[in-house]
């Protein structure tokens, strides 16, 4: 089981485009300039496959991580809605490579990134978008 950042020296990182690059993308408008009165629109990620997708809503009650999961064939967004939560991530099957981020911005994970989400309070709520059919792999920590 991974230690809780509140009870250890496990560093919680802030999400920004640079710190999150090896895991995926921050959902944001790049190089936004707030001039003018027109709406701004940009596509953050385009999936070329025609597999369809789904939107899910996760109420996070876990306070510790005992396993990570991976979706080798699907990008996955995590969009915080309510509460405060942490997301643990790694591209490798190596516990020493796991990073922890405060999930305070919407992000997209690359395919095959190991991940887990825990709450920092009684619960947190997260919107998730992923392929309509998702293959899951689990790694017990």
Give a verbal description of the structure.
The protein has a single domain (5-28, 52-140), classed as Ureidoglycolate hydrolase (Jelly Rolls, Sandwich). The protein has one helix at residues 17-20, and strands spanning 12-13, 24-26, 53-60, 67-70, 76-82, 85-90, 99-102, 107-109, 114-119, 124-131, 137-140. A five-stranded antiparallel β-sheet has the order 2-8-5-10-3, with no helix packed on it. Strands 1-7-6-9 form a four-stranded mixed β-sheet, with no helix packed on it. Strands 4-11 form a two-stranded antiparallel ribbon. With 141 residues, it is an all-beta fold.
Main CATH class: Mainly Beta
Number of helices: 1
- Strand count, sense and closure of the main sheet? 5 strands, antiparallel
The count of DSSP E runs of length 2 or more, i.e. the number of strands, is 11
* Oligomer kind: single chain
Shape: globular
Radius of gyration: 16 Å
Low-confidence runs of at least 5 consecutive residues: none
Structural class: mainly beta
